[in-house]
Design a protein that fits this description.
By secondary structure, the protein is an alpha/beta fold. The chain has 13 helices and ten strands. 41% of the residues lie in helices and 15% in strands. The chain has a ten-stranded mixed beta sheet, with helices on both faces.
Length: 359
């Protein structure tokens, strides 16, 4: 944490903390792990069953900024910045998916979470799968864009598929990615990348007892349909869903749909027609979130985003808390505006393996 400020020192955190209607608070804490720490951004009151969110390679918990508020309606949400990402100090020595899983387990134990719903995206799916394989008490697992396809485990193949997926990502997701990778740095990114590509998630999946939901975006070349079907067959229990028009970062661009799927999965409301059934859902409401914001909320979003980046760069949790809270307030104000019911429609459409190619 930075030294205390004087009255003459500019304090963007304080200004953001005084935002109008600041009735949404994001708390930022640290859990010490293995010579460094995990940054935990939390929203919601303790007591209910928690969602624990783990982002992908090089990515900050900010990627979950649109998903978390929807999950928060059903319990507290804790989003993690792992060592080496989002300005958090790196591990010393060798790094592995298993070591990241150790860090997530430490968070679960330190926060005294009882049977949290583990949610992972991209490399985060490997981490939470490893945690669930070790902990038979975990009863629900949500894997969003699980990697890496066992038929394409090379750096070249993964890079090519990732670039294909980015063509279908909105500008906001690309901006998040650029800033997150800049904070991560090429040295650490290149150190973790081979570990992600080599990790055999399907082998660990066989040891998972949790009920598992696997979600992919329609245009996610990193996570083709054939791969998620093969992966799902290894889990003792898994259901598959594909979000129409989504890509690799589907939990941001189509957050409403992914949140509904996660909540319905935990509640046991998702119909299961077997792992060969890849049912599709549509949600057009998240894409219009920003267009529903007024000028004040839009300005608060832009301002809070830059202040958050400043907080990450300076390793200043107070600034991060204020920025994340202001961002949540702005998004909540926008969500209060009327939404056309047609924008929240869901379609159910099975994709037959023999008639459609992998995305």
């Amino acid at each position: 944490m930075d030294d205390e400020r004087t009255d003459a020192t500019p304090d963007p955190a304080k200004r953001l903390g005084e935002a109008e209607n600041a009735d949404v608070t994001v708390e930022v804490d640290r859990v010490a792990v293995d010579g460094t720490y995990v940054r935990v951004s939390s929203v919601g009151e303790p007591g209910d069953r928690a969602f624990l969110l783990v982002a992908g390679l090089g990515i900050a918990a900010t990627y979950y900024e649109r998903l978390a508020p929807h999950l928060n309606e059903n319990g507290p949400v804790h989003a993690l910045d792992l060592p080496g990402f989002a300005g958090v100090p790196r591990f010393r020595g060798k790094v592995s998916i298993e070591r990241y899983a150790d860090a997530v387990e430490k968070v679960i134990d330190d926060l005294r979470l009882v049977d949290p719903v583990l949610v992972g995206h991209s490399m985060g799916t490997q981490v939470v799968t490893e945690v669930a394989a070790r902990r038979p008490d975990i009863s629900d697992l949500v894997l969003i864009s699980p990697v890496v396809d066992s038929h394409a485990r090379t750096v070249r193949q993964s890079a090519f598929r990732f670039l294909r997926s980015t063509l279908h990502e909105p500008a906001a997701v690309r901006w998040h990615g650029i800033t997150a990778y800049a904070l991560c740095g090429w040295h650490w990114f290149s150190k973790v990348l081979p570990r992600m590509i080599a990790f055999p998630i399907e082998e660990r999946a066989a040891h998972v007892q949790a009920r598992t939901l696997i979600v992919r975006g329609e245009h996610d070349a990193m996570v083709p349909r054939d791969w998620v079907r093969r992966l799902a067959r290894v889990f003792p229990y898994a259901v598959l869903r594909e979000v129409v028009d989504g890509a690799h970062s589907v939990m941001h661009a189509q957050a409403d749909a992914v949140a509904r799927l996660a909540v319905d999965h935990v509640a046991g409301r998702l119909p299961d027609r077997g792992v060969s059934s890849l049912q599709r859902v549509r949600d057009d409401s998240t894409a219009s979130d920003l267009s529903r914001l007024g000028p004040r909320e839009a300005w608060m979003l832009v301002k809070s985003r830059f202040v958050e980046l400043l907080g990450m760069a300076k390793n200043d949790d107070e600034t991060l808390e204020a920025a994340k809270s202001a961002h949540a307030v702005a998004m909540a104000d926008g969500d209060d505006l009327p939404v056309d019911p047609a924008d929240r429609r869901e379609i159910v459409d099975e994709v037959a393996p023999e008639t459609r190619k992998a995305g």
